[in-house]
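Hi R.,

Here's the chain you asked about this morning:
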Amino acid sequence: MLQPAFILFLILGYFTLLMGIAYLTGRQADNKTFFTANRSSPWYLVAFGMVGASLSGVTFISVPGWVGDSGFSYFQVVLGYWAGYFIVAFVLLPIYYRQNLTSIYEYLQKRFGDNSHKVGAISFFISRVLGASFRLFLVAIVLQQFIFDAWGVPFEITVILSIVLIWIYTQKGGIKTIVWTDTLQTLLMLTAVGLTLYHLGNALHLNPYDIITDAQYQNYTRTWVTEDFLARNHFLKSFIGGIFITICMTGLDQDMMQKNLTCRSLKAAQTNMVVFSLVLIVVTFLFLVLGAMIFLYAEQNKIMIPLMEGSPKPDLLFPEVALNGGLGLGVGVIFILGLIAAAYSSADSALTSLTTSFCIDFLKLDQYDESQQKRIRKQTHLGMSLVLVVVVILFKYVLDRNVIDGLLTVASYTYGPLLGLFAFGIFTPFKIHDRRVWAVVILSILLIVLLGNLSSETLGGYQIGYELLPLNGLLTFLGLMMIRRKETTT
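And here is the predicted structure, written out as tokens:
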């Protein structure tokens, strides 16, 4: 069993390494470096680093924890992700590179006007704050349970310390620092998965192939849900939902696109996206296998799912097995490093992208001289850090479901307007009455919230899943058709 002091020592050592990378990449950094890394990032570094940023601490813990209830059915969504990445690479990226965008929501300003620009930026802001906070919350509760509770440190202090560390190493180099730190963090995360699978396999006398092929483990490995279309996780719903989740949470998300826009050319960015999508499928499947092995090991060794606020919390089973399950010091060490790497590879880029979007989309940074721009960017970076602190702490008191499921559900509400706006801009020639876009978006979200909260009995047994996201986008698209203007784009 790892002692809290030893775990804390590991974390501080890891952050010391990140500070060293930040120092090397942040020398002579200006706003252009912070926002675009001078558009000089090698595509293979971006692709590898994006694996860690996309998976994050949510995947690292919550996907294995989800296997107990849902088996491998999440893989249906992942296959949809893969299809979505090709749409991002060959439909959206050419637009962003052709218009030489720093914030991708500048497209909406050029296409429709200031109000549409603000709607897109606000949708991203809410989505990314909630998404980053979901991820940070999950890591914070692990650190709290296995380190800081032993010393009587309040959860709020744990959250503040975590975000302060992220702020320190991102505040100078921005996206250029993150491209390099994400590469390190992805490597650590994948090493953690591989070594944990190896040690669990030895302890169970099983290998991943045995888990996948043996019928006695099918409760954990059932993948395809095709019998009942009314089921929430039916294959078609999951696959189509996965496509639109990727389009929105990657292609229409400043966080993920900011990394792609640091590549030297459109072709390099597209290569990055295709390679990254293939690697992501393989890695996510390994997480599912890991989840099955964790539950089998817990059953064999009578390890109970840890409680949080008096209720079982499957998200905490992986850390319980890794740190207190008798697998040895090495597994505990690599788990902590993998967890921190997974969590902060997502959180650091979120903080940078929020700063970028707020500066470009709301504060119109290019209107100020260079010295003022740098001051505003630093103040905004600090302000975004404070926002994350507040939201993560709030989650402790309001979150009552599996984190990844909650994350994808929230995305259905917040990314839908972005999907509708970009689709209308790309696939129609129409202009719109820009001042009316707020009414369209608000009405669309209200209808989706209403639909999402209808019981399955009300819908004749139909369980609503991730199709809420494309439905939200469709409602926004139809609303924009109603406020279109007679003239078209040339």
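One quick note: The chain has a mean pLDDT of 84.

Cheers,
M.
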